């Protein structure tokens, strides 16, 4: 555990990507199995221990430390695991050897909620403060060391001089501690046999278009649907549905599992049927899908009721095909894959699949006009794909672009601010803002309509933090009520009705677009303006 | 007879010693100021009379370019103020010249610590426990999570990193008064005899420490040297210069910072610190609570810092305490 704790701390303080890669690669080479495999799983959020949650740590500490002192310390640090690592009473007398990562993982896997309160202290008493921190992070997930799962895989590839695409592919065939992956990478043994496994293939992703202008002779345009990107894999009689991050979500969408019955890997957008979205009059869009709000009701469920299946049936709007009838198509140009996809369509039930149309335009300017004119809420914007692009994992420059619809904007008034966590633990960085429920000059009130914590620069954050501290009306734990002095121009993707909020609506992806230092608060927008934008 | 301790009154801008018409560490200009130490948040300029140790007065002169009204008091010396108030200056162990002030009046004893620590520091004499009725303490690191490690461990971390990167330099952000000189003196004690390079803003204070007999070894100014001269060296700058354009003249610096706040990982990250050195000139939680137990006052007053937690500790230990909510004392860089 000492080497793992040292790695975690070194990663926290290292800014450079190359240095992070070097640190992880060095650890992977120097550390024996199964520790290195579990460490890799921890870095990529691949471990989950049911018995130990943040609340377990809190309860454990509150048995040993005064609850008031605990809360004050937790507020200051902004991180439960770190606070607990500091406040855990140092054991008195002789201390046993610290546990290895493998030993800690075994112990954590075997714990129940009932015995965790007894088992955890035995391990904690063998660790120093840095070791306790690493252990808590291992136990509860969310390392927050600035390492994405992609970076960890690149580090593995670097450590053992193997291809990162291979690492991605084998990764999903294996479980922590990835013994076979290390046997292949470190010891040159055969890679895991993935031919007969319904494995996730890493998605091809897009860069934002921003200022780039592309030639439509080289690029095809497609709608970017507002659902969730999924991959359907059918191998050896078994079908799986994978989310963008590679999570198996088959159980959440059982109707899709039965809908694909021949060997194939398909890439598309999972949507829920709805008749609200009809597509616009000249049929530029396809319609038939409900907004993201309706899809959201079905996400994150481990089981799904018959009623829900009947009321909100899912379907997949297909973008691409990665393999069909056992043939890997990923190296083919997009154009040819598109043809193969069109040929496959008759074999797929039209109740559960359709094809995402290619958007035809004379030139880029016309495409820009089409994008501007889109009013279908199931559409997030456009995708631009190089006609000759192979299907490659991750974001490769110049192949695929996403071109999102412009966001909606509204002027809101800052009402509450909350301290952030992690790097922002000393800053008031999460802002709740509101709109007027009538004419502010006639005594209307502000009602909260949303919360945002992004869209501003570090320099603006400092300034906002200062304003919050200087204009505090009330304190509620980590939240401050702020005098109504500041207007935010808030950008958001869409707004929906919601019973959960007093204002009766909920915004999707709200973020601070601009800080309107100049605008008086009574000129901020009214709720009616926002209500007029609701699409359910 | 007046009510007990009515002669000493905490006000938002300092502690007022009423019969002497004097203020302790006032944050605005007054006729008579008793100053505990030279940090700018305690030692402001423009007072009619300033009573402080010779070291503190020298520091203030360096800062404000005047000795007007300077009244020196040596450690252990008692000075009689107006209205029958005696003031004795006692070492606080914080920085060069730092003192606690013991005030005695009508048989009542009050100690004001200013800022203090209990660890050994080669640049100033150690804190002395002084029994009193009211103990007025700071609480900068008044949370149980603050536990400053032995300074030798932090020096070893710094020297190990330096040795591992002979082509680079380690840039240490350290408060210009006190922290910088303590870090240098501790490096010398750890056997580091190479020249240490200084940001220009550090020079005068280091020279002043030397005049008062603190040996800092060979010091050089960054401005006088080429990039290549500084490879493999330690460079000390004020924390504000760490991510400043100034640091571009240095050979691929590893950014370190010497501060008690470095204990919290995300605090170090916020400042882009790659090598956090947990070194503070303030008492940590254990030192604060031990000191209160040793001084064993009737009542503790807390001037600034994390006073809520220290108040809670008093409650848990059946001790009397109050927070003074003083303005203007905060030490983000310490």
The CATH topology label of the largest domain in chain B is: Metallo-beta-lactamase, Chain A
Query: Which protein chains make the most extensive interface, counting residues with beta carbons within 8 Å of the other chain's beta carbons?
Result: A-B, 25 and 23 residues
* Shape descriptor of chain B: globular
What's the CATH H-level homologous superfamily of the largest domain in chain A? DNA ligase/mRNA capping enzyme
Please write the CATH class name of the largest domain in chain A: Alpha Beta
Q: Give the CA-based shape of chain A.
A: globular
Q: What's the β-strand tally of chain A?
A: 22
User: What is the average per-residue confidence, as pLDDT of chain B, rounded to a whole number?
Assistant: 94
What would you report as the Rg of chain A, rounded to the nearest angstrom?
A: 26 Å
The total beta strand count of chain B reads 19
Terminal Cα separation of chain A, in Å? 51 Å
Flag low-confidence runs of chain A. Answer: 277-284
Which band does the percent of strand residues of chain B land in? 25-35%
Percent helix of chain B:
10-25%
State the CATH architecture of the largest domain in chain B. Answer: 4-Layer Sandwich
Mean pLDDT of chain A: 90
If you consult CATH, what is the topology of the largest domain in chain A? Answer: D-amino Acid Aminotransferase, Chain A, domain 1
The CATH architecture term of the largest domain in chain A is 2-Layer Sandwich
Global structural class of chain B = alpha/beta
User: Helical segment tally of chain A?
Assistant: 19
Keywords (chain A): ATP-binding, Cell cycle, Cell division, DNA damage, DNA recombination, DNA repair, DNA replication, Ligase, Magnesium, Metal-binding, Nucleotide-binding
GO molecular function (chain A): ATP binding; DNA binding; DNA ligase (ATP) activity; metal ion binding
Catalytic activity (chain A): ATP + (deoxyribonucleotide)n-3'-hydroxyl + 5'-phospho-(deoxyribonucleotide)m = (deoxyribonucleotide)n+m + AMP + diphosphate
Pfam families (chain A): DNA_ligase_A_C, DNA_ligase_A_M
């Amino acid at each position: 555990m000492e080497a793992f704790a040292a790695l975690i701390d070194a990663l926290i303080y290292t800014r450079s990507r190359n240095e992070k890669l070097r640190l992880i690669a060095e650890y992977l080479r120097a550390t024996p199995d199964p520790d290195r495999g579990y460490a890799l799983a921890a870095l990529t959020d691949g471990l989950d221990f049911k018995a130990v949650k943040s609340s377990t740590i809190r309860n454990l500490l509150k048995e040993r430390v005064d609850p008031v002192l605990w809360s004050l310390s937790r507020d200051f640090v902004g991180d439960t695991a770190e606070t607990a690592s500091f406040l855990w009473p140092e054991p008195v007398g002789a201390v046993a050897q610290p546990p290895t990562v493998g030993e800690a993982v075994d112990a954590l896997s075997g714990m129940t909620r009932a015995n965790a309160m007894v088992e955890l202290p035995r391990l904690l008493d063998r660790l120093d403060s840095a070791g306790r921190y690493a252990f808590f992070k291992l136990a509860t997930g969310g390392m927050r060391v600035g390492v994405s799962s992609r970076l960890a895989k690149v580090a593995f590839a670097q450590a053992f001089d193997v291809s990162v695409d291979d690492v991605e592919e084998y990764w999903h065939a294996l479980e922590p501690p990835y013994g076979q992956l290390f046997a292949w990478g470190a010891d040159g043994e055969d890679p895991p046999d993935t031919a007969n496994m319904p494995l996730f293939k890493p998605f091809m992703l897009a860069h934002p278009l921003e200022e780039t202008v592309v030639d439509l002779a080289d690029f095809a345009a497609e709608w970017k649907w507002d659902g969730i990107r999924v991959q359907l894999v059918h191998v050896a009689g078994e079908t799986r549905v994978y989310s963008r991050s590679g999570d198996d979500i088959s159980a959440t969408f059982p109707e899709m599992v039965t809908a694909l019955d021949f060997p194939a890997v398909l890439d598309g957008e999972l949507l829920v049927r709805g008749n609200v979205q009809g597509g616009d009059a000249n049929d530029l869009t396809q319609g038939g899908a409900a907004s993201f709000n309706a899809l959201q009701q079905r996400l994150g469920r481990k089981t799904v009721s018959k009623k829900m299946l009947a009321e909100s049936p899912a379907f997949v709007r297909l973008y691409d095909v990665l393999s069909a009838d056992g043939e890997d198509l990923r190296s083919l140009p997009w154009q040819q894959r598109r043809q193969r996809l069109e040929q496959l369509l008759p074999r797929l039930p039209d109740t559960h699949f359709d094809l995402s149309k290619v958007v035809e335009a004379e030139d880029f300017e016309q495409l820009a006009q089409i994008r501007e004119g889109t009013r279908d809420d199931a559409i997030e914007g456009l995708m631009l794909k190089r006609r000759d692009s192979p299907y490659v994992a991750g974001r490769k420059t110049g192949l695929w672009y996403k071109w999102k619809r412009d966001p909606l904007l509204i002027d809101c008034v800052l009402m509450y601010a909350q301290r952030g966590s992690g790097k922002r633990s000393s800053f008031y960085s999460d802002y709740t803002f509101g709109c007027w429920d009538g004419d502010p000059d006639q005594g209307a009130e502000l009602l909260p309509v949303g919360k945002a914590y992004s869209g501003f620069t570090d320099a603006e954050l400092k300034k906002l933090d200062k304003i919050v501290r200087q204009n505090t009306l009330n304190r509620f734990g980590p939240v401050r009520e702020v005098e109504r002095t500041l207007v935010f121009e808030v950008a958001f993707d869409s707004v929906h009705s919601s019973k959960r909020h007093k204002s009766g609506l909920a915004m999707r992806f709200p973020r601070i677009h601009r800080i309107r230092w100049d605008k008086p608060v009574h000129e901020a927008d009214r709720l009616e303006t926002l209500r007029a934008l609701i699409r359910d | 007879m007046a009510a007990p301790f009515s002669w000493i009154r905490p006000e938002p801008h300092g502690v007022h010693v009423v019969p002497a018409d004097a203020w302790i560490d006032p944050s605005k200009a007054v006729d008579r100021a008793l100053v505990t130490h030279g940090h700018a948040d305690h030692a402001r300029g423009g007072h009619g009379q300033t009573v402080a140790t010779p070291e503190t007065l020298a520091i203030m002169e360096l800062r404000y370019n005047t000795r007007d009204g300077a009244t020196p008091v040596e450690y252990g010396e008692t000075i009689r103020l107006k209205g029958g108030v005696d003031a004795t200056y006692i070492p606080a162990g914080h920085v060069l010249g730092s003192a606690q002030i013991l005030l005695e009046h009508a048989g009542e004893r009050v100690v004001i610590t200013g800022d203090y620590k209990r660890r050994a520091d080669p640049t100033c004499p150690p804190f002395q426990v002084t029994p009193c009725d009211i103990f007025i303490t700071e609480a900068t690191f008044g949370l149980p999570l603050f536990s400053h490690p032995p300074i030798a461990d932090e020096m070893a971390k710094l020297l190990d990193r330096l040795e591992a990167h002979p082509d680079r330099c380690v840039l240490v952000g350290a408060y210009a008064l006190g922290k910088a000189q303590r870090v240098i003196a501790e490096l010398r004690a750890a056997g580091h005899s190479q020249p240490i390079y200084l940001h220009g803003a550090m020079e005068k204070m280091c020279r002043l420490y030397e005049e008062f007999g603190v040996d800092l070894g060979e010091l050089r100014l960054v401005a006088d040297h080429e990039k290549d001269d500084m490879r493999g060296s330690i460079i000390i700058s004020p924390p504000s210069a760490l991510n400043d354009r100034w640091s571009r003249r240095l050979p691929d610096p590893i950014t370190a910072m010497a501060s008690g706040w470095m204990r919290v990982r995300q605090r170090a990250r916020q400042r882009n610190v790659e090598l956090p050195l947990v070194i503070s000139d303030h008492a940590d939680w254990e030192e604060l609570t031990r000191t209160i137990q040793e001084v064993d006052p009737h009542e503790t007053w807390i001037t600034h810092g994390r006073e809520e937690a220290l108040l809670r500790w008093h409650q848990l230990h059946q001790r009397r305490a109050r927070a003074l909510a003083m303005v203007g004392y905060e030490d983000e860089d310490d």
